[in-house]
Structures are given as C-alpha cells and as structure tokens.
Write a structure and sequence with these properties.
The complex is a heterodimer.
Chain A (H helix, E strand, L loop, with lengths): L2 H20 L10 H15 E2 L12 E6 L7 H6 L3 E2 L2 E8 L10 E4 L7 H8 L5 E4 L11 E6 L2 E6 L1 H6 L3 E2 L1 H8 L8
Parallel strand pairs in A: 2-4, 2-5, 5-6, 6-7
Antiparallel strand pairs in A: 1-9, 3-4, 7-8
Chain B lengths: L7 H56 L3 H9 L7 E8 L4 E5 L16 E5 L2 E9 L5 E10 L1 H32 L1 H20 L13 H48 L4 H15 L4 E8 L4 E7 L4 H7 L6 E3 L4 H6 L4 E3 L8 H8 L4 E9 L2 E10 L7 H78 L5 H27 L10 E4 H11 L1 H10 L4 E6 L6 E4 L1 H18 L4 E12 L14 E4 L13 E10 L6 H6 L16 H12 L2 E6 L5 E8 L22 E6 L2 H13 L3 E6 L1 H14 L5 E5 L7 H11 L5 E5 L2 H6 L9 E4 L4 H14 L1
Parallel strand pairs in B: 13-15, 20-21, 20-22, 22-23, 23-24
Antiparallel strand pairs in B: 1-2, 1-5, 3-4, 4-5, 6-7, 6-11, 7-8, 9-10, 10-11, 12-14, 15-17, 16-18, 17-19, 18-19
Helix pairs in contact in B: 1-2, 1-3, 4-5, 5-6, 5-10, 6-10, 10-11, 11-16, 11-21, 12-14, 13-14, 14-16, 18-19
C-alpha cells in the first residue's frame, strides 16, 4: 500500500468520522480510482522538472488545472491541501475551456472533453504543461500520461517524447514505476 | 615459588615472556578493538548508504503504489549478503514491501520505529525516511544488518592473534634463551665466584669478565674488592702473626719472670733465664757475664746447656774472663743494648771469637741495677740478621727483669746473711745470758747447799770419829749419811765447775797442747777404742796437729778435762763406729762470724766471749784452734742450742748433763770461744779457740790454785796401765801427796801389806777395776779385809754405768770415772782423807 492509499485512507477516515458524528455506521471504504488519480496528480509535481520559464519566480505556485467536468469530487483539493513541493504551494483550478488553461503546469483533461481533444492538444503545443487524462488513445494522440486501470490498480501509460517536446523532464523513477507491471501500450 | 626466589635465568625468561605477552596482548586487543570499531563504522556507513540508495529508488514505487517495482528495488540488496532483511512501510506505517520477498510478514517489525541507525541484539538496524527531494515523507525503509559475521570475524581475529601470540612467545622464548645469557651468565659466574670465596674462603678466585657493560664493571669491582680483601687478609694475618709472636714473647717473659721470681740465688736465676732463652726464643748461644768495673773485665757466670759445646770451643766456659774493649761490649756496659746483625767480619776480639764458633747475629743486653751495669746478657744466632726488633725489645725487657731479679736476689741474700748474723748474735747473747744466769744460780745454789750440808758432814764425821760407843746400826746409818753428803758435795762441786768466774784466781801457764792431747788420747783410749771394739764398732782416730805445736795460756788440768769430755761425747755419738779427728791449728780470727757461702749451709754457732761484740771491727788476732770432730749422729738445732746448758743431756741416766757445761765454764775462764758445727746425721765438730800465748811470755806459774786444799796423804795407785799410773802419780804428787804405784792387782795388795808391815800404811788406795789376774774388786776386798778404814777408790771406765745400775761393788769407797777427774779425785781425796 503506498502513500496514495494512505492518503486516500486518511481522507476516508476523515469522512467516516464525520459520518459517525452524524450518526452513520462506521465502515472501512476502499478508495476509488478517482481518489487515487487525484493523489497521483499531486505526486506528478514531485517527479517532473519544469523549465525555468514555466514559473514567474521561485515562489510561484504549481498550478494543477482540471479541464472539463471534475471527476474527483473534492479529492484533489484534499490531496494538495497544505502541501508544498520544492518550496512551492499547489493550486487547483477548474477550467471550462482550453483558453483558460494559461498558467497551468499540470492539466487534467476530463473525459468530457474527449471531442475537443485534438484542439486542446494542439492548443497546448509548445507550452510547458504536463497533460494527463483517462481518455483512450490519449498517449497516441499526443498526450503525455494516461491513467489505466489494471487489476483494479491504477497504472500509468507515459509518452516521454511528448513530454520532452513540451520541455519537461520526467524522472526515470517515474518512468520505471510506470513501466513495471504496466500495460506496455495503449490498446 | 615467588618470583623473587627464582633463579635469575628463569626470572629473566619470565620477565621477557610476560612483557612480550603483554605487548602482544595489548597489540592484539587494540587491533581487534580497532577492527571491531572499524567494522561497525563501516557497517553503519554501508547500511546508511545502502538505505539512502534504496530509499531514493523506492520513492516512485511507493508514490505510485507499485509494489512490484519496490520488490525489485529491494531485491537489489542481495548483493550485500550481510543485509539479512529489508522492508518498506508507507506513510501510514503499513508494511508495503519486504526482502527477502518470500519471508513471512511476521519476520519484520509490524510498524516502523523512529528513524536512525542502532545496534540491537547483535544486529544493526536502520530506519530511514523515504522522500522525494525535500518533499513530504512517502514512507520508511527498514534495513537489518546481521553482526554475526562481525563476531565471526572477531573470533577469527582472536584465533589468529592467539596463534601469532603463541608463535611470538615461542620465538621470544627461543631468542630470550640465548639472549638472557648475556645477563645471567656474568651474574652466575659472579655468584659462583662469590660462593667460592664465601664457602671455601678461597680468596684467589677471580670472576671472569664477559663484557664491558655494568656487569663487567661490577665484575671488575668485585675482583678489585677481592684483591683488596686478599691484601687486607694478608695484612691482618701478618698483624695477627706479629701479635701472636708478641703475645708468646710476653708469655715467655712472664714465665721467665715467674721462674726467676721463684729463685733466690744468682746462679740459678741466670741458669733458668738462659735455659728459657735457648729453648723458647730460641737462640744458638747464650750466656750471662758479670761485670767488674774496676778491672774492666766480664766474667762468664752462666752458660746455657745447649751452648756448652760452643762455649768450650770458644773458651767461653764459666769463669772465663772477657776484657771489655772499645767495641760493643763497652757500649753495653755503659747501659746500651747492642745488636750486631752480622759479626762475621768484626775486627774486635769478642765478636770475633763468637764468629769463630759460627755465630753471626749477636745481641748484648746490659743487666743494670740502680743505674749501674753489673753484667751482660749475651744471645747469639748462627743466622745473620736473625734478630728482629721484637727480639731485641724482648731481650731488652728480659734483661731488665733479670737485672731486677738478680739485684733483688743479691739484696735478699745480703738481707738473709744480715738476718742470719743477727740471729746468731742474738742467740749467742741469749745463750750467754742464760748460761750466765744459770751459772749464777748454780753458784748460789751450790753455796747454799754447801752451807746446808756442811754441818751434816761435820757432825756425821764427828759422830763417826768421836763416838766409839755407837751401835753398828747407827754407825752404818751415819756412814750412809756421810756417803750421801759426799754425793751431794760432788754434785755441787760439778755445778761449781760449770760457773766459777773468779774463783781461786786461776793462774794461767803456758801449755803445750800437743802434749795435753796425746795424754788425753792415751787416758781415754778405753772409751773411744776398747769399748766400741767390744761391740764390734771401730772408731778410727785421726790427728792433725799443727807444727810447731802452738802454745796457749791456760790451766792444763781444766783443758785436759774439757778435751776428755769432748772425746767421750764424740765416742758416744759414734756408737756404730766412725772417725774421730783431733786437730790443732793457728788461725787469724776477727771477732765476727765467717761469711762463707757454702752449700749446704751448715748450722753454725759462734759463741763469742762476753764483751767481744765490741771487737767486731778489731784487726784479726792469732788464735789457736783445738778441734774435735766426729762422724756420729750429730745434733739437731734444739739440742745444739741447749747442749751447753748444765744438766742438759741426751744420754738419759748415763749423762750428768755437765760435760759440755764444764767445757763452757773452762772457756769462760780462759777467754776462749766454743764453736759447734753439727747437723743431724752429719757429725759434730767442736772447736775451742784459745788466744795464742804471747811468744815472749814466760811461764808464770806451774800450778793453778784450784779446789780446796787437801792434806798430804800416802796413796797407793794400783793399775795395769803405766800411763795412768804416771798421770795419777804426777797429779797427786802435784797436790802434795806421797804416791806409790803398783802395776797390777797382786802387786798392789803386796805393796799395801808391805807398807802396813813397815809401819807406814797407805792412807788411801786407788785401784783400777779392770786388770788381768787380780781385778779391782779383789784388791779392794783384800785391802778392806786388812784395814777396813782405809778408803778405796775404784777407777773404772764403767763408772757411770756401775753407779746407775747400783752395781757398786762392796769394799769400795768411791767409784771414779776413768780417766779420773782431778776434781773428783781431789774431792774424793779430800773427803776420804778427812774420813780416814
């Protein structure tokens, strides 16, 4: 069980306590894939190096954008609450359109935006933004990281070339973790 | 055994091994300790590094919940076998993955503990946080490093160290064995040398030096000490020998001094000194000489027994005279001790003489008394320079002692002589005084008795003569009384003879002693020759009469009586025979005792006339000595002292004790001296010393007016000895009697009868007792038969014995000893004449 689950469990416990206080029955909930993915989004900030120009200054926050419908139901906000990565705080923004995506460092493209995907990706071309999505063929379409559910475990499918093209350096450890026991390719 | 008692070799070995062992142990311990610490440090570092690597590699795996990746990361740890377990926990402390993968979860801590490295139960445990960069903690890495291998290693190191130590000790032992000799051998040899010195007292032992280190120095010092010790011992021994010698000399000196102290005469002192010197010092030649300072002559007085031959050879025997020349002897007689180490080439006579006898070393020590040298002690040896200074000193001291002793002996001798003289003088004076007192007493007693008995005699005589009517019994009693009175008178008269100082004013005539002596010898022949012959004893007569015959002034009859007494005494003293010697000589005598030192010293009495003590210093006067000697029993001191006293006799009943007393009385009247030499068993010599008659002196008188005058009588003498007849006739004629002599008993009887027939009867008859054919008894019987009133006097040599044994024959009025004493005769004549 990784920190992810711990984080997820911490979240669940908090919820359960609240429920208990409200008179609900205590129950140990298994974290959902969305909750896991929210935590993964936060962790990406630690394994990716952005170029110098991606931030206004040393203290500028890392901005995580959620484009389209938010599947995390507050879990992402909970995951980044109070956290700092390399001295930077983390901000979550919800975006309606790709045009609002200016200033984002990590952009989660929701399934709801599937039709506009090619526009979105082309709009982001040349910008230092890490793109993440659950959408199939996302990597082949020019996306960088796709969440894949294998044996009820969330696994990562990564396109290092796209990241490199975007001027991002992905940690080898991230690549190794993605490869080990990973899906091997998009089907 | 404690270490301090171990032999030095073992001690050194033990020290070496202990030191090596300690060093090795410390080294090994340090090494192992260091290894241990280093291992732990290295282990920490390795675990830390490996942990960091693993943690760093685990970040993505745990972040993205990839246990497979994590398992692979952990599997990489198997490259380090000492990592026995590893585990990764998530941020909530839940075990996420572990290594080895096949181990059960229970083999790992259920939850991570605080971060950090720690040793726990033989293991090194590491809890390390997992974080990506400086970000939030992702989890915890657990690593376990097993220290079993460390312990195994340490054990191995210990084993190797032990092995190395053992080997090193062996090596140290082998090296030490050969190297410790460098120290132990010199110490041992030194110890052996010291032991040899202390146990065997062999001071010639030296310890060999084996090196130039401190032990070498010690050995040198030891040897040097031994050298010094040897020298010290030699010195001490020499000193001891010297001391011993000195002590023995002192002892010898002491012994000699004692031996000398026990002797009083010079000769014996000198002999003992020389003998000790010869035997104890010793010397080859020793003698003592006396020194005459006037003649400058040394007279050899004592020569040692061992030196006698040499002395003979060198003509240095006793009494040899050695002149004192200008050499050592003259120095010696001035009081110096002279030592000539070698006299072989001496030019002087005395050392030269000794050198001829083979003597080389000479010491002459003076004998000095009151700062005057009176002699020298001569000691010589054949070995040249053989007298040490100790010997010389010894001889010097000895000579002082000897001189002192000799001086004392001389003083003692002089003192003894003076004392003897004094004693003799005192005895003489006492004797004279006693004799004088006795004489006075005798005189007084005689006078009183004479007075007392005179009336008795007179009345008895008167009664007998004038009372014819007396009964026979009364006449007989009166006759007995008369006889008794006569006896008393005779005794009294003898007493008067002893002391008759001025009586009668004796006229001294010149007397020819030779004639008197021959007469007396004739008269006394029966006593000194015939009577002893009857008993088989022989008395030999020797006469040694001076020529020309010396003449003295005296009363012949008294001298004759005295001489007769002396001859009787001599004959009595020689009951077993011997030699009777009569001697006359003229001597020059000072009125002091002779100081001749003869040995043995005879007992000598010198009786001097009264008042002669004042004449001690007078020049010698000529005196005539009449000496009667016998070889009889002699007298002891007491007898000799008292023999002149009246009534003192050694002859018991046979002696009157008046003989020598009368001799003494005679000498008193003649201003003569009596000397008596006698000792028990050595005979007696009585010397009568008369003043010699002046050569020009004329015969002043023929007779001595002695005794009471007796009226002249006609007397018949009957004897077979013509000499007696002659002497009696002469004596009696001298008294004015008419004397007729008859030779033989029968002739006497015939003559008596013839005279009676002629009408001229004899008024008195004197007859000898012992005569051939007709003896005195028959003569007296015949006369009494013919004329009872005619007194008969019997002359006999046995008179005393007859009287004593109450054997006076009948018909005899008086027994007179033969030769008849004049005074007795006179008394008898006077008595018998008056009675007749």
């Amino acid at each position: 069980m990784g920190p992810l689950r711990a984080r997820i469990r911490a979240t669940a416990v908090a919820l359960l306590i609240a429920a208990g206080l409200l008179g609900g029955r205590p129950a140990l909930a298994v974290p959902t894939a969305q909750q896991v993915e929210a935590v993964f989004l936060f962790y990406f900030s630690q394994f990716v190096d952005w170029p110098q120009g991606a931030f206004a200054d040393e203290r500028s926050p890392i901005v995580i954008g959620v484009l389209g419908a938010d599947p995390f139901d507050g879990a992402l906000d909970q995951a980044v609450a109070g956290e700092r990565v390399n001295g930077r705080s983390i901000i979550v923004r919800r975006l309606k359109s790709i045009a609002d995506a200016t200033g984002c460092h990590i952009l989660y493209i929701s399934s709801s935006e599937a039709p506009q995907l090619p526009q979105i990706l082309s709009a982001l071309k040349g910008r230092n933004v890490l793109t993440v999505s659950d959408l199939g063929n996302f990597v082949q379409s020019g996306g960088m990281i796709r969440f894949v559910l294998i044996d009820e475990h969330v696994r990562l499918l990564i396109n290092p070339a796209a990241a490199q093209a975007a001027g991002l350096k992905l940690s080898s450890k991230l690549l190794r973790a993605a490869a080990a026991g990973g899906p091997g390719g998009e089907g | 055994m404690p270490l301090r008692n171990q032999p030095i070799r073992r001690k050194l070995m033990i020290m070496l091994l202990v030191t090596s062992g300690a060093v090795l142990a410390i080294t090994c311990a340090a090494f192992i300790g260091y290894q241990y610490a280093a291992y732990r440090a290295a282990a920490r570092h390795t675990v830390q590094t490996l942990g960091e690597i693993a943690a760093s590699n685990s970040t993505a795996a745990i972040a993205f919940d990839n246990a497979t990746d994590e398992t692979e990361v952990l599997r990489a740890l198997n490259a380090e076998r000492r990592i026995t377990a590893a585990a990764v926990y998530d941020a909530n402390g839940v075990l996420f993955s572990h290594y080895p993968a096949d181990a059960p979860a229970s083999a790992f801590p259920p939850r991570p503990k605080r971060d950090g490295l720690r040793f726990d139960q033989g293991m090194l445990i590491d809890y390390q946080p997992i974080r990506q960069g400086g970000n939030t903690r992702l989890g915890t890495l657990y690593l376990r490093w097993d220290l079993v291998s460390l312990h195994r290693e340490i054990a191995l190191y210990a084993l190797i160290a032990a092995g190395m130590t053992g080997f090193a000790m062996l090596l140290a032992y082998l090296l030490g064995r050969s190297l410790q000799r460098q120290i132990s051998r010199p110490v041992q040899t030194l110890g052996q040398a010291a032991l040899a010195v202390s146990e065997k007292r062999d001071y010639s032992v030296r310890a060999p030096k084996l090196g130039n280190d401190e032990l070498g120095t010690l050995t040198d010092a030891f040897n040097h000490m031994l050298d010094q010790l040897t020298a010290d011992i030699a010195e001490r021994n020499a000193f001891g020998t010297k001391l011993q010698k000195q002590l023995s000399r002192l002892d010898l000196l002491h012994r000699i001094t004692r031996a000398v102290g026990e002797r009083q005469d010079l000769r014996s002192i000198f002999q003992v000194v020389i003998r000790h010197l010869e035997e104890q010092v010793p010397i080859d030649f020793g003698c003592i000489c006396l020194y005459d300072p006037h003649e400058q002559i040394l007279t050899v007085t004592s020569v040692g027994a061992r030196s006698r031959e040499t002395a003979l050879e060198l003509a240095l025997t006793e009494k040899a005279r050695v002149p004192v020349d200008r050499n050592g002897l003259s120095r010696c007689v001035r009081g110096e001790l002279v030592y000539e180490p070698n006299i072989a080439a001496s030019p002087y006579p005395f050392p030269g003489t000794l050198a001829k006898g083979g003597l080389c070393a000479l010491v002459v020590a003076p004998l000095r008394a009151e700062s005057r040298v009176f002699g020298v002690l001569v000691a010589a040896r054949r070995q040249p320079e053989s007298f040490s200074s100790g010997d010389c000193e010894f001889l010097r001291q000895l000579s002082e002692h000897v001189a002192l002793a000799a001086h004392q002996a001389q003083l003692y001798d002089a003192l003894q002589r003076a004392y003897d003289d004094l004693r003799h003088s005192q005895e003489t004076v006492v004797q004279q005084e006693r004799l004088r007192a006795l004489g006075q007493m005798a005189s007084g007693v005689a006078h009183d008795i004479n007075n007392a008995i005179s009336p008795i005699a007179l009345y008895t005589e008167s009664l007998l003569e004038r009372e014819p009517g007396l009964s026979e019994r009364a006449r007989s009693y009166l006759t007995t009384i008369q006889t008794a009175i006569h006896d008393v008178a005779r005794t009294v008269s003898r007493m008067r003879e002893f002391y008759r100082p001025q009586e009668g004013q004796a006229t001294l005539a010149k007397i020819d002693l030779d004639r008197v002596i021959r007469g007396v010898l004739e008269l006394t022949q029966a006593r000194w020759r015939d009577v002893p012959q009857e008993r088989g004893a022989v008395i030999e007569l020797r006469t040694d009469l001076a020529q020309p015959p010396p003449a003295i002034m005296g009363a012949e009859n008294e001298i004759r009586d005295a001489l007769t007494n002396l001859i009787f005494n001599a004959a009595d003293a020689m009951s077993d025979g011997g030699t009777l010697t009569l001697r006359t000589k003229t001597v020059m005598r000072q009125m002091k005792p002779e100081a001749a030192a003869e040995s043995p010293r005879p007992i000598r009495d010198v009786l001097l006339p009264e008042g002669s003590s004042a004449a001690v210093a007078e020049p010698p006067v000529e005196m005539v000595c009449l000496e009667v000697s016998d070889t009889g029993v002699g007298m002891d001191a007491e007898t000799r002292r008292r023999c002149l006293e009246p009534f003192f006799t050694t002859k018991g009943e046979r002696g009157t004790g008046m003989g020598l007393a009368m001799v003494y009385g005679m000498t008193q009247r003649h201003r003569a001296e009596v000397e008596i030499d006698s000792a028990p068993g050595q005979g007696t010599t009585v010397r009568l010393l008369f003043p010699a008659a002046p050569r020009s002196a004329e015969e002043t008188g023929r007779q001595l007016a002695l005794g009471l005058p007796v009226r002249p009588m006609r007397i018949l003498i009957v004897d077979d000895d013509p000499l007696i007849i002659e002497s009696l006739r002469e004596t009696l004629r001298g008294d004015g009697h008419h004397v007729t002599a008859a030779e033989g008993g029968q002739a006497g009887i015939d003559a008596f009868e013839a005279a009676r027939a002629r009408g001229e009867p004899f008024e008195l008859v004197i007859t000898d007792l012992g005569m051939p054919y007709v003896d005195g008894r028959r003569v007296s019987a015949a006369i009494k038969t013919a004329s009872p009133m005619t007194p008969v006097v019997l002359l006999t040599g046995w008179g005393q014995r007859l009287t004593a044994e109450n054997q006076v024959p009948p018909h005899v009025d008086r027994v007179l000893n033969k030769p008849p004493r004049l005074k007795d005769l006179r008394a008898a004549l006077g008595d018998l004449g008056r009675r007749a």
